[in-house]
Amino acid sequence: MARDNKKFVIQEHSKGSEIHWDFMLESGDVLQTYRIDKAPQQIGDSPANAEKIFDHPLKFLSYEGPVNKGLGSVRIVESGSYEILHKDNSKIELDLNGKILKGKFALTHNEDDNFIPKGWQFGKSNI
């Protein structure tokens, strides 16, 4: 599969003392967005829990500043390009070429696993 140079970004999203990260994948005219609970540099050690949230506008590929009517702010902590290697209802395998995240990663849906919280996990892939 040829690399089509789709972009991804991870933004640190702070609101008061709460911090999470938004992992955004360019998909057509939107960014498919997953809320993750770890910074990019922590994901190599163990997967992050992820939650699929609403799609964001493409402007968030480069936007940093206030969000939520000034109640929070975002800043870019990782960016690069990606290729989808495989996609089905339970797994999206990606080849990431970022500043921090390089190589094969996967978003895996965990609907029925009693040991992993319901939702998604984002981490290194073994493909």
List keywords for this structure.
127 residues; mainly beta; eight-stranded antiparallel beta barrel; 9 strands
List the helices and strands and how they pair.
Blueprint: E1 6-15, E2 18-27, E3 30-36, E4 48-57, E5 65-67, E6 72-87, E7 91-98, E8 102-110, E9 119-124
Antiparallel strand pairs: 1-2, 1-6, 2-3, 3-4, 4-9, 5-6, 6-7, 7-8, 8-9
Written account of the structure:
The protein has 127 residues and is mostly beta strands. The chain has one domain (7-124). The chain is 0% helix and 62% strand. The protein has no helices and nine strands. It has strands at 6-15, 18-27, 30-36, 48-57, 65-67, 72-87, 91-98, 102-110, 119-124. Strands 1-2-3-4-9-8-7-6 form an eight-stranded antiparallel beta barrel. It is globular and about 40 Å long. The protein starts with 5 loop residues before the first strand and ends with a strand. 22% of the residues are buried.
Low-confidence stretches: none
Mean pLDDT: 90
Please compute the radius of gyration using only Cα atoms. 14 Å
Largest sheet, in brief, is: 8 strands, antiparallel, barrel
Number of DSSP-assigned strands: 9
> Secondary-structure element order, as H and E?
EEEEEEEEE
Strand fraction band? Answer: over 45%
Instruction: Tell me the number of structural domains.
Output: 1
Please state the overall shape, judged from the principal axes of the Cα atoms: globular
| Helix and strand composition category | mainly beta
